[in-house]
């Protein structure tokens, strides 16, 4: 057995050096973070591996927008599976809206001021008004050319019409990185889409995504996963690989716990029993806040690749 080395923190230390210390420190949270960093580094360096990233929870309003965009630009991810909310909030900023930091205000006072709260992050109704106005223009443009479209194709077309280099949706469209959102209707984007279809001949076919996704999976030599948060986006990522025996490598960061039996809190090892991760695959689950842990992991990887 290897002994546990005590951490040594010094001035001007690189993030990669700190994670390297974590790698020698033990099997608690720090050791898991280090192993996740090593796995992500290996996934990015594996030229035969397509890396899927799932975005669950409020990651874009929580500050990870530029990181996701940079990973697409750097070709460190090859496919995105996002919640509808993260797509909505990406577009909200692309259209000139903002997210605000403000703690401690009474929620009824926020409501009176037309402000919605996401933990410590606030979004004003004026920002959503801008979003609603701009998304309708985009729907009108796309529906004038196509009457039926898959979710993935819709997000690609939307991305091409967004003029913002920091938008992950726009960057994905220009980089030909497919974006899927199986729960798109459960978002402000989905609400506006439903309202638009009430008086326009425009149909979004969710089942059609599976043709593209299954081809992408079968054409991949190996598949890696970056699962940020849980829920539908995590399961869609895992299940998409089922017909090919599951993921070859993956990391998961979640605040959910396994005791309740939820998928969000299930350790990645559990996926092996369903053939959603291969037996012999390299997996690591980190329990913690994605907005803290993933930037540290990715920063350390950038030092090593």
TrEMBL record:
SUPFAM superfamilies: DHS-like NAD/FAD-binding domain. Transmembrane segments: none annotated. Keywords: Transferase. Gene3D superfamilies: Deoxyhypusine synthase. GO terms for cellular component: cytoplasm. It comes from the Archaea. GO terms for molecular function: deoxyhypusine synthase activity. Belongs to the deoxyhypusine synthase family. This is Deoxyhypusine synthase Dys. It comes from Methanobrevibacter millerae. The gene is dys.
């Amino acid at each position: 057995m290897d002994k546990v080395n005590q951490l040594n923190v010094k001035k001007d230390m690189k993030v990669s050096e700190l994670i390297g210390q974590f790698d020698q420190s033990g099997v608690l949270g720090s050791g898991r973070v280090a192993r996740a960093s090593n796995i992500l580094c290996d996934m990015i360096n594996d030229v035969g591996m397509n890396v899927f990233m799932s975005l669950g929870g409020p990651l874009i309003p929580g500050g990870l927008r530029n990181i996701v965009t940079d990973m697409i630009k750097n070709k460190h991810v090859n496919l995105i599976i996002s919640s509808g909310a993260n797509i909505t909030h990406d577009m909200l900023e692309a259209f000139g809206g903002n997210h605000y930091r403000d703690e401690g205000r009474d929620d009824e006072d926020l409501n009176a001021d037309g402000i919605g709260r996401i933990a410590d992050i606030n979004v004003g109704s004026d920002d959503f008004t801008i979003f609603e106005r701009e998304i309708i223009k985009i729907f009108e443009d796309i529906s004038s050319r196509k009457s039926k479209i898959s979710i993935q194709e819709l997000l690609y077309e939307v991305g091409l019409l967004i003029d913002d280099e920091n938008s992950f949706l726009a960057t994905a469209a220009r980089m030909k990185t497919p974006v899927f959102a199986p729960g798109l209707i459960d978002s402000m984007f989905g609400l506006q889409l439903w309202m638009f279809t009430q008086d326009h001949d425009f149909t979004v076919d969710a089942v059609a995504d599976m043709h593209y996704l299954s081809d992408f999976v079968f054409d991949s030599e190996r598949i890696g996963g970056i699962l940020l948060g849980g829920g539908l986006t995590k399961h869609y990522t895992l299940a998409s690989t089922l017909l090919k025996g599951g993921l070859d490598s993956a990391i998961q960061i979640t605040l959910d716990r396994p005791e309740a039996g939820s998928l969000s809190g299930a350790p990645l090892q559990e996926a092996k029993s369903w053939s959603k991760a291969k037996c012999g695959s390299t997996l690591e689950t980190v329990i913690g806040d994605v907005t803290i842990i993933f930037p540290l992991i990715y920063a350390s990887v950038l030092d090593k690749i």
